Q: What sequence folds into this?
């Protein structure tokens, strides 16, 4: 799928799904801006993207800082050009602070909603005007299968990922006539650092619940991002694709 001449911005690109997405979009022909707070991982992503023969602009920032977000997208516009494709991938599950609803803190709730939902909206806001001016654009949001199945001890996370689907559908409707498509991918259990750091006694029961009996690789999510970003997906908007090995069926 050719994205030659396109500019893609990927948030949460220092590792995992974001890194895989940035590499895949580069393989498809786009130049890439990668955004994350983790500088070391981000610079490794830059090397991998540049190895594909594409330009890669690293932007190290705290995406919860709205002024920093505005400055980041201004930098991307100045150094690479207006963003054609945005993959809103930044997010956290907060599993290290997982708690029952009764015991979960207001501060943790605020953090999870802000990092998972508000940041996606803020980044989308920064690219919409340029996409409208071009008459086309692609926004891909990372939600989760947990948006459907819920999560015991992860009510804050499940709520935020359900909100991402609402954001996706609403933006899709609002900007459909401007040639901007907005879609979401809903991963299940993915082999990212958050998973590999867990003991086998925790991971294996999760794998046992997946009909395919394997966890997803970040590259499997990147395949979906690639499709949604492509010219082939021009008539696909307001949708989401579950990538979870059959664990959650809708």
A:
């Amino acid at each position: 799928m050719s994205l030659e001449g396109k500019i893609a911005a990927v948030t949460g690109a220092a590792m995992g799904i974001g890194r895989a997405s940035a590499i895949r979009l580069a393989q498809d022909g786009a130049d890439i801006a990668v955004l994350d707070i983790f500088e070391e991982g981000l610079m490794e992503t830059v090397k991998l993207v540049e190895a594909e023969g594409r330009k890669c602009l690293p932007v190290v920032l705290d995406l919860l800082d709205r002024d920093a977000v505005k400055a980041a997208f201004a930098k991307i516009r100045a150094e690479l050009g207006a963003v054609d494709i945005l993959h809103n991938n930044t997010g956290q599950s907060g599993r290290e602070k997982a708690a029952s609803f009764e015991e979960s803190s207001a501060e943790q709730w605020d953090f999870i909603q802000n990092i998972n939902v508000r940041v996606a909206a803020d980044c989308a806001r920064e690219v919409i005007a340029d996409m409208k001016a071009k008459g086309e654009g692609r926004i891909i949001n990372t939600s989760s299968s947990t948006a459907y199945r819920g999560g015991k001890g992860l009510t804050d996370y499940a709520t935020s990922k359900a909100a991402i689907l609402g954001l996706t559908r609403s933006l899709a409707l609002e900007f459909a006539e401007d040639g901007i498509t907005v879609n979401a991918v809903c991963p299940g259990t993915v082999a990212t650092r958050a998973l590999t750091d867990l003991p086998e006694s925790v991971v294996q029961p999760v794998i046992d619940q997946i009909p395919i009996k394997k966890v997803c690789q970040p590259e499997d999510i990147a395949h979906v991002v690639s499709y949604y970003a492509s010219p082939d997906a021009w008539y696909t908007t307001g949708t989401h694709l579950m990538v979870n090995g059959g664990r959650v069926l809708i």
Remarks:
- DSSP finds nine helices and seven strands in the chain.
- The first strand starts at residue 7 and ends at 11.
- The mean pLDDT is 91.
- Residues 45 and 94 are 24 Å apart (CA to CA).
